[in-house]
Write a structure and sequence with these properties.
With about 180 residues, this protein is mainly alpha-helical. The protein has one domain: Arp2/3 complex 21 kDa subunit ARPC3, CATH 1.10.1760.20. It is built from eight helices and two strands, in the order ααββαααααα. A two-stranded antiparallel ribbon has the order 1-2. Helix 3 packs parallel to helix 5 and helix 5 packs antiparallel against helix 6.
Length: about 180
C-alpha cells in the first residue's frame, strides 16, 4: 500500500439532520427530563408538566425528533427518578409526539388551526389511553388506572393548551427552523 491509498478520506455520509437539529433535540429532551423529574402535588398524586414540552417539540420538529424528545426524554426522566413506568413512557409519549408531528404536518393543509387542533387532541388521547393501559399493566390493577385517570386528562390538557401557545406566541417554530437551517 502506498501513502496515497491510505490517506484518502472516507466519503461523507449524507444526513438530513445536522448537528444543530441534534442539539435542539437534546435541549428539548433535557427540558422534558427536568419537567418529568418532579410533579406538582395534587390530592392523590402528582401532576407532571412534561406534556407541555412534548407537544411543543412535536409541533416544531419532524416525527423522528419528536420521538427523541417525547419518548426517549420521558423514558430517561422515569429511568433516573422513578423507573417502574419507564417503558410505558417511552411508548406512550413517543407515539404521542410522533402522531402530533405527523398529523400537524399532513392534515388539513388549508387550515393550520384544524391541523394543530386535530394533532394535539389525537396526541392527548394517545397519552391518556396509553398511560391508563400501561398503569393497569405495570401495577396489575385497573383500579389504580381509574384513580389516576383525571390527572392524566389534566396533564394532557396542559400540553394541549400550553404547547401550541408557546409555539406560536413566541414564534418558536420559525426561530428553531432558522437555527436548524443555519440562518442565524
Amino acid at each position: 500500500m502506498t501513502h496515497e491509498t491510505v490517506s484518502q478520506p472516507l466519503p461523507a455520509v449524507e444526513s438530513r439532520h445536522n448537528t444543530r437539529w441534534l442539539t435542539i433535540c437534546g435541549l428539548l429532551m433535557a427540558m422534558n427530563i427536568g419537567l418529568s423529574s418532579f410533579g406538582l402535588p395534587v390530592p392523590g398524586g402528582h401532576l407532571y408538566l412534561n406534556d407541555i414540552i412534548i407537544v411543543t417539540a412535536a409541533l416544531i420538529l419532524d416525527p423522528a425528533g419528536a420521538f427523541l424528545v417525547g419518548g426517549v426524554g420521558a423514558f430517561l426522566g422515569d429511568f433516573f427518578f422513578y423507573p417502574l413506568p419507564m417503558f410505558v413512557s417511552l411508548v406512550t409519549h413517543g407515539l404521542q409526539a410522533m402522531a402530533i408531528s405527523y398529523i400537524s404536518r399532513h392534515s388539513f393543509r388549508n387550515s393550520r388551526f384544524l391541523s394543530v387542533s386535530s394533532a394535539v387532541l389525537t396526541g392527548a388521547l394517545i397519552m391518556v389511553v396509553g398511560y391508563s393501559l400501561g398503569r393497569a399493566y405495570v401495577y396489575s390493577t385497573p383500579a389504580y388506572a381509574w384513580i389516576k385517570l383525571p390527572y392524566e386528562i389534566l396533564q394532557a390538557l396542559f400540553g394541549v393548551i400550553c404547547g401550541p401557545f408557546l409555539v406560536w406566541r413566541l414564534h418558536l417554530a420559525e426561530r428553531i427552523q432558522k437555527l436548524i437551517e443555519e440562518k442565524y
